[in-house]
Every structure is written in structure tokens, then in C-alpha cells.
Amino acid sequence: MQVKIEPLPPDLETAIREKLAANPFIKFVGIQAPQLGKGYARFLLPFKPELANSIGLMQGGVIAALADEAVAYALYSLVADGETFNTVEMKINFLGAVKEGDVTAEAHIAKRGRTISLGEFEVHQAARLVAKGLCTYIHLTDRQKK
């Protein structure tokens, strides 16, 4: 994935990393965030047997969740503090199996809209592309949060 990565202001990066540290799913699964940028995130998940399906491959839902989290945190860099959003659609093509090693999801926001935003992602194991897709998010108003 070739995108220009613009660094985040230090206070924004700190705020996003605090959100990451407070996210129970990210902690439970073991996702790491080696790189954040404006509208960009690169997340890493080491393979472990607990994330495998019955034939020993990383379960597809885990790969999809890794990608969804990466896109969501790329979007956090483009929304006001306290603004919320939620995934409304995800399209993923699985292109290869993962049975060992680190898996990396690289995400960027293709369109930050007022109501709907679109993110793109690629998931790699080393240099091998294992998944590619899109996530669509709705920006929630106070009324929609209830």
C-alpha cells in the first residue's frame, strides 16, 4: 500500500494511543500499533495458536477484526475529540492463509465525509498480501448514540 504518511501532532498521537491502551479487544487479542499517521495506521498481530481455526490457520474473523481496528484508528486521527463512529460495512478479500509469524494491517482513510467515511486496508504476512478490503463508517450524532 503506497500512501504518504503525515505524522500526527504529539498530543493527538498520545490521545489515540491512550484509546488503544483502553481498548479491551486490542489488549485481549494482542494487537500492537507500531505506526500512526494522519488518516493512517499500521497494526501488527503476532500469530498464536489461540487465534487459529480448527485447521491451524489464523481465523479469518481475527484478520478482519485486525483490519477493522486499523482503519478505525486511522479515522480517529481525522475526527474531533469525543466524536464517535461505527462500522456499517466491511468488504474483505482473503488472498492467502496465515499459519505463523506476524500479520500487519496497513490502513488509510480514502474519504473522510461528514456522515460516512471510507477506509482501505491491506493485510500482509511479511511481503505476502493475505487480505485486502474496505471499511465504511457512519459518524454518529448524539441522538444516534442513544
- Tell me the fraction of residues in β-strands, as a range: 35-45%
Oligomeric state of this protein: single chain
Q: Which shape, going by the Cα principal axes? A: globular
The helix/strand class is: alpha+beta
Helix content: 25-40%
Strand order of the largest sheet: 1-2-4-5-6-3
The gyration radius over C-alpha positions equals 15 Å
Distance between termini?
A: 37 Å
Number of strands: 6
Unreliable stretches (pLDDT < 50, length at least 5) are: none
- In this structure, how is the largest beta sheet organized? 6 strands, antiparallel
Order of helices and strands: HHEEHEEEEH
What's the average pLDDT?
95
Descriptive overview:
The protein has 146 residues and is of the alpha+beta class. The protein is built from four helices and six strands; from the N terminus they run ααββαββββα. It has helices spanning 10-22, 24-29, 60-76, 142-145; strands at 32-37, 40-46, 84-94, 102-112, 116-125, 128-140. A six-stranded antiparallel sheet has the order 1-2-4-5-6-3. A hairpin with a 2-residue loop joins β5 and β6 (128-140). The longest helix has 17 residues, at 60-76. The termini are far apart. 30% of the residues are buried. The mean pLDDT is 95.
List keywords for this structure.
6 strands; six-stranded antiparallel β-sheet; 40% strand; 146 residues; single chain; alpha+beta
The gist of it:
The protein has 146 residues and is of the alpha+beta class.
Layout of helices and strands, plus pairs?
Elements: H1 10-22, H2 24-29, E1 32-37, E2 40-46, H3 60-76, E3 84-94, E4 102-112, E5 116-125, E6 128-140, H4 142-145
